[in-house]
Amino acid sequence: MTQLRKRLIGELKLRGCSDRTIESYVGHVYRLAKHYAKSPDALGVEQIREYLRYLTLERKLAPNSVNVAFNAIVFLYRDVLGWDMEGRLENLKRPRIRQKLPQFYSQREMYRIIRYGCAGSPRHELFVMGAYAAGLRISEACSLRWRDVEWDRRMLRVDGGKGGKDRYLPLSPKWAERLRPRWETGGRRPEWAIFASRGGPSGKAVTANTARRYYDQALERSGVARKGSVHSLRHSYATHQLERGVDINTLRVLMGHESIRTTMVYLHVAKTRIGKTGTPLEGICEEFGEEGSGS
Length: 295
Known about the structure:
Elements: H1 3-14, H2 19-36, H3 45-58, H4 63-80, H5 107-117, H6 122-134, H7 138-143, E1 149-150, E2 155-158, E3 167-170, H8 173-185, H9 208-222, H10 232-243, H11 248-255, H12 260-264, H13 271-275, H14 280-288
Antiparallel strand pairs: 1-2, 2-3
Helix pairs in contact: 2-4, 3-4, 5-9, 6-9, 6-10
């Protein structure tokens, strides 16, 4: 491992970045160096700009992918190599990213995924119910330990969420009904993962790929036509909480969002917010009745 890579990894760890983020940033910096067959500290701004154009125009990567590469490269030169932003990186422009609405399921679809998709598979049911009931990211769900369940307080602790932030969430009574017998009869230890791997050492957490497989198989068996990713469970949680009347600031805390702007995207999809607005057509029909008919 080169000294520059060690410095990059060290700076990312100091900022509390996840292993997945570190792997992604290191990979993008490696590909930049490989593209020019030079160490990144020997490159100039024009070469960096040309590389980003190459990713967009020749490799035709999606804007989101180019943006991650942009973030990794800027972090390297600004925070690791100590480049002065003024006059060097300030003219590097981020690719424009299309703002997509979150993919979520209706409450009826979520019921079908849990009721029919998870039928006969307690492990699948436990994961899908838990991830949806608490609005967890997949990494947060896989990292849950038995010690994070506070039965008496009816709370669930998310230890080290995105950005290294902890938070508390209400413990779903329905999920707790499924969970408690496993805790009381399974000889489990507080430090063991709730979603434990079958093949590995006792209490070792399942991988994200295994958790995705739980969800994918449940979705396929449910017969629900819309096919979202496992993150759709989290999007569904946020949307349904707004539809139940949870205010946007409380939802921000529950979701573990740093900025309220991230949470506000769910206002665009919550039925109670959008559906109640109606349309202007009904308004003019009520106001003027048959006056305008035939014209």
